[in-house]
Amino acid sequence: MTPDAGTTASVDAGAPPGMDAGGPPDAHVVPGTDAGEGSRRDRLFPDSSWFYQPVDAAPLRANSDATTQWLTDNGGWGAGRFQIDFSIEVLAAAADTPLMTFTKTGDFYNPDCDDVMMPVPMGGALEGESGYACTSDGDCHLIVIDRRVNRLFEMWRANIAGGAFYGGCVAAWDMTRVYPAEGRGEQCTSADAAGFPIAPLLFTPDEVAAGEIDHAIRFILPNARMRRGFYVRPATHAGAPSADDPNAPVYGTRWRLRADYPLESLPNDGARVVARALQRYGMALADGGNIALTARSDRSTVAQWDGLLGSRDLDAIQPNDFEVLDTGEPIALTYDCVRTPY
Length: 342
Fold this sequence. Notes:
There is one protein chain. By secondary structure, this protein is mostly beta strands. The chain has one domain. Helices cover 9% and strands 20% of the residues. It has helices at residues 11-14, 64-73, 205-210, 269-280, and strands spanning 8-9, 84-88, 91-92, 99-100, 103-104, 118-119, 142-146, 151-155, 159-161, 164-167, 170-174, 185-186, 217-221, 230-231, 254-257, 283-288, 293-296, 322-324, 331-332, 338-339. A four-stranded mixed beta sheet has the order 3-7-8-11, with no helix packed on it. β7 (142-146) and β8 (151-155) form a beta hairpin.
């Protein structure tokens, strides 16, 4: 599927409201790649953003042990194992990438979501798909880095098929900005239920092959294994958590792999790279679902997952191998989004 549905515009003519259209990049960027992405020299957001901060010495929540034990006793990770999902695509806009309008679906929420035109790179794909048609009826995230305007566009439930472009919630992140504690807004979602940006929390095969992941990692749990009615920083929202126990994991919590975890017991160097990142930068509870960790697809990366890391190479890691960090008191979930002005 090529991005020929909907109305298109050049960046200069159709930059999203509130966004200054910058000049085109010096060279064409292959869809799905971004030169230097994930490196310390060229991160997506400023270095002081929360997901780049080490947490290996951060204090623990008072009920850290009770929370990891509760999860152990109540089904553990989704599907019962610490599995990795490699299906999320991250695309990059090129100089000639069009901006396209879309028809909002019931998954677009006001005022949480951004009413903007989406860059749609030629030859790209949605999460879990071979192109832009959402054939699986899954999350079908459309994630595009557009350095022409220094924005990260993330859409949930995208679908471009039959000459039409339909889309759910869009978060248009300003990559020049260090967002405040309330992110894009208190009680506001994004393309991820916790209100996080997705792309900077995905680990990539290029990072693993290089031997270092220098940021927090996105993880998810089934909604029935998260505490009902609350979220905690750095989250600004929660999806549909339904556990009534106060020791159940809370949306947004950051978890750290214990420093004494025996890394040598893991099956390969790739698994050890991920585990070291979980010890130093931790993981953040971002959404509801069954596969615990999310990595970036290798569809357009230099390194490939095959032979580097398998989806079940971290299966041995259990909830009790983690500690839950103290990032503040739980915030009552109301779904009454108040956007942060900027």
